[in-house]
Design a protein that fits this description.
CATH superfamily of the largest domain in chain A: Vaccinia Virus protein VP39
Radius of gyration of chain B: 17 Å
Largest sheet of chain B: 5 strands, mixed
Helix content of chain B: 10-25%
Strand order of the largest sheet of chain B: 6-8-9-10-7
Radius of gyration of chain A: 19 Å
Largest interface: A-B, 42 and 38 residues
CATH architecture of the largest domain in chain A: 3-Layer(aba) Sandwich
Structural class of chain A: alpha/beta
Strand content of chain A: 15-25%
Number of strands of chain B: 10
Structural class of chain B: alpha+beta
Strand content of chain B: 25-35%
CATH topology of the largest domain in chain A: Rossmann fold
Distance between the termini of chain A: 47 Å
Number of helices of chain A: 9
CATH class of the largest domain in chain A: Alpha Beta
Distance between the termini of chain B: 45 Å
Number of strands of chain A: 15
Number of helices of chain B: 4
Shape of chain A: globular
Oligomer: heterodimer
Helix content of chain A: 25-40%
Order of helices and strands of chain A: HEHEEHEHEHEHEEHEHEEEEEHE
């Protein structure tokens, strides 16, 4: 059976998508403007003969770096000038774009790439609560945040779906645990995709997290729900569940990259028309991890 | 929160040793925990967080080594570019010697103690310890590697 064949009707240009799954992931880096001047660091890297290309026109912090296999061996990594991060992962923080001085919750924060990107976009101002249930992930996350010079972040370890409600946030990022289909590439004969154990349990958790994230928003606050899977059950169905249970509205997404709209139906399920405001990013369109995002506000 | 006297002692040390102006820290809180101090943007303190149980707050900026207060590598990487004293520029061969565990001779009139090591201009690597005209690495060995000096090793 062809890989992900059950998505052949929803993934555009499906044969091209299949071809792309055979290719290794490209290396993307984000230049950390909190510790360095991006153009200067890009110049340093290029001066060594490395092939650095801007990923997004007009953005001097996101780059693809062809042929790079060990970004951790770059001296710029130790200096905290760069962070290796999938391009689509960077887009979640860009879609949220928190204002400087704002109060932000990252509900499922490990390994810290998006948290640090949010801090960068906020120029280390305001406050980010980086929540991660598993304490063993706090140590590497703490190292990443320290390396990148993040000084506006507090780490907590609550279950995301039970995060205390007392304080409301200007922005919430819910990059939830998911089946990770978008992370799969068949780079050798041995690699094969495994269906997640108990997908139903996963979607139940995702629905609880999205409701809690929305309940933690201030009146004019905004939330981004994100996954790295193609699965409509974990994407549109979860967002649709929020629309059915809260006064939520889906906002148009602006990332600077082309994306495909969210689905309004899948098999026997029908979703609200506004689900088209969601964004689906496919590897053959953006050459990165498959990703899904929804930008959510409160209905006025 | 670090007491005012403690904060003053730390910032005076930075100013005297490295020439890093204390005004740079006006917007930051200094929080003490055990033998370490953490830096956090002041704007963070205006938000009520007493209902949360944090496991880590801000950036670990200083820790006690004997009777000394030592800035962390990550803290000095951020504020080192603003230093006007006790700063030594090293080249890649000197860095390589430091990373392999040795110390390097340095002719300087800087008093003994911690020095800021820069590579190629103002790229602050971290701290070294200057004693009797020789510099010993204080860089975190697990994080900074020989491979960083080999252009082929990164590909």
């Amino acid at each position: 059976m062809t890989l992900f064949e059950h998505y052949s009707e929803i993934i555009p240009d499906f044969s091209h998508f299949q071809e792309f799954l055979q290719k290794p992931f490209p290396s993307h880096i984000r230049i950390n403007s909190l510790k360095t001047e991006p153009d200067e660091t890009a110049g340093f890297i290029r001066s060594r003969g490395d092939n650095l290309e801007r990923s997004l026109k007009g953005n001097n912090t996101l780059y693809s770096m062809k042929g790079l296999t060990s970004p951790g061996n770059l001296i710029e990594y130790f200096l905290g000038y760069i962070h290796p991060q999938a391009l689509t992962s960077c887009l979640a923080s860009i879609a949220l774009s928190p204002e400087k001085g704002s109060f932000v919750l990252d509900m499922c924060a490990a390994p810290g790439g998006k948290t640090s990107h949010l801090a960068q976009l906020m120029n280390n101002t305001g406050l980010i609560i980086a929540n991660e249930l598993y304490h063993n992930r706090h140590i590497p996350m703490g190292h990443t945040l320290a390396r990148l010079g993040i000084m506006n972040t507090v780490l907590t370890a609550y279950q995301a779906q039970e995060f205390p409600l007392r304080q409301k946030f200007d922005y919430v990022l819910a990059d939830v645990p998911c089946s990770g289909e978008g992370r799969f590439r068949r780079i050798n004969e041995g690699s094969s995709y495994r269906e997640p154990y108990e997908r139903e349990r996963l979607t139940t958790l995702q629905k609880k997290i999205i409701l809690r994230g929305f309940d933690l928003l201030k009146g004019d606050g905004r939330m981004v729900y994100a996954t790295c899977t193609y699965s409509p059950e974990e994407n549109e169905a979860v967002v649709n569940y929020l629309l059915q249970n809260r006064d939520a509205v889906l906002l148009p997404l602006k990332t600077g990259f082309d994306h495909d709209p969210g689905l309004i139906s899948w098999r026997d399920d029908r979703y609200e028309k506004q689900l088209e405001n969601c964004a689906r990013f496919y590897p053959h369109r953006i050459d990165s991890v498959g990703f899904f995002m929804a930008s959510i506000g409160r209905r006025s | 929160m670090a007491e005012e006297a403690e904060r003053n002692r730390i910032l005076t040390y930075l100013e005297h040793r490295f020439g890093i102006s204390r005004e740079l820290f006006d917007d930051y809180l200094l929080l003490s925990r055990k033998d370490s101090w953490y830096m956090m943007r002041k704007s963070c303190g205006e938000i009520q967080l007493s209902h949360l149980k944090p496991s880590k707050v801000g950036l670990k900026a200083f820790h006690k080594v004997g009777n000394f207060i030592k800035p962390t590598t990550r803290m000095i990487q951020i504020y080192g570019p603003a230093a006007t004293r006790a700063k030594l520029e090293i080249d890649e061969s000197q860095l390589s010697a430091l990373l392999s565990g040795g110390d390097i001779p340095f002719e300087t009139d800087i008093e003994k103690g911690y020095v800021i090591l820069t590579l190629k201009g103002n790229r602050v690597m971290g701290l070294g310890l200057l004693i009797n005209g020789r510099v010993r690495s204080q860089l975190p060995r697990k994080e900074v590697r020989e491979a960083m000096l080999d252009p082929e090793a990164i590909r």
